[in-house]
Each structure stands twice: as C-alpha cells, then as structure tokens.
Amino acid sequence: MTLPRTLPVLAVAGLLALGGCASDPVVDEDTPVSLTVTIEDGAVTPLGEARTATVGQPIILRVTSDTEDELHLHAEPEETFAVTPGTHQFEFTVDVPGSVSLESHHVGGTIATIDVSP
Predict the structure, then answer these.
(1) Mapping DSSP to helix (H, G, I), strand (E, B) and coil, where does residue 105 land?
(2) Domain assignments of the chain as residue spans, ordered by start
(3) Strand 86-92 and strand 69-74: pairing?
(4) Is the pLDDT score of 56 beyond 60?
(5) What is 12-31 written as a DSSP string?
(6) Which tens digit of pLDDT belongs to each residue from 58-97?
(7) Cis before 4? omega within 30
(8) Given its phi and psi angles, is residue 95 left (phi above 0), alpha (psi -120 to 50 degrees) or beta?
(9) Among the residues of the chain, which ranges form H helices?
(10) Are 94 and 100 in contact (CB under 8 A)?
(11) What is the pLDDT of residue 102?
(12) E strands along 1-118, which residues?
C-alpha cells in the first residue's frame, strides 16, 4: 500500500508553519526588566545574574538590605544607587547598547550583567 502523494506535502507544510512560530520573541520596550537584590549578613544575592534589555527599556532594581552600600551601574553614563537598610526601588534605562554590569561597592561582587541591544 502506498501513501497518497498529498500526505508528505501536507506534513512538510505543517512543519514549515510550526517553524515560523519559533522565531525570537520581540522585546517590548515598555515592559520593564526586573532584578531583585538582597544584601544580608555581608553577602549579596544574586551574583553573576544575566539579563537582557533593549536601549531605553525600563529596568527596575528592587533592593532589600540590612546595611549601607552603594551599587554602581557601569554604563554610559555610569549611575550610582545609594542603599540604606530597608527596601528600595530604583528605575533606570540604558541608552547605549553593549554589556553593562551592576556591582556592589561595599559588600562586593558583580550582581548582574545586562546585555543591552539596540
């Protein structure tokens, strides 16, 4: 018994249609990127977190700390966030594409690297 010739054609057409759905998601510049940071007992978490964003996309930084610290965003231009004990929220955007890092100045460590695309 042989399969009708239309069956393989339909199977290939179905696979091509599914492949079209697998494209990269479009990043919405209005949707913020969120990063939650905890500074407690002399340690920062997370460390080495990876995030992606686009130029001009809002980035929300939520920090809960039991000590004073200063977070540095190594971007163009650089930004500094003063942290005191308690919970704080900072919002920023990155205007120049590239890889930027967020670091703790006093407690130490690279909290996150954000790859910013055009």
Answers:
(1) coil
(2) 33-117
(3) unpaired
(4) yes
(5) HHHHHHHHHTTSPPPPPTTS
(6) 999 999 999 999 999 999 999 999 999 999 999 999 999 9
(7) no
(8) alpha
(9) 6-20
(10) yes
(11) 98
(12) 33-40, 43-45, 49-54, 59-65, 69-74, 79-83, 86-92, 98-104, 110-117
Going by C-alpha positions, the residue among 76, 28, 77, 79 that lies closest to residue 53 is 28
**Taking a C-beta distance cutoff of 8 angstroms, is the pair 29, 54 a contact?**
yes
Instruction: Specify the pTM.
Output: 0.73
* Residues 62 and 34: beta-carbon distance below 8 Å: yes
Q: Which residues lie below 8 Å from residue 19, measured CB to CB, with a gap of 6+?
A: none
- pLDDT over 70 for what percent of the chain? 75
CATH 2.60.40.420 assigned to 33-117? yes
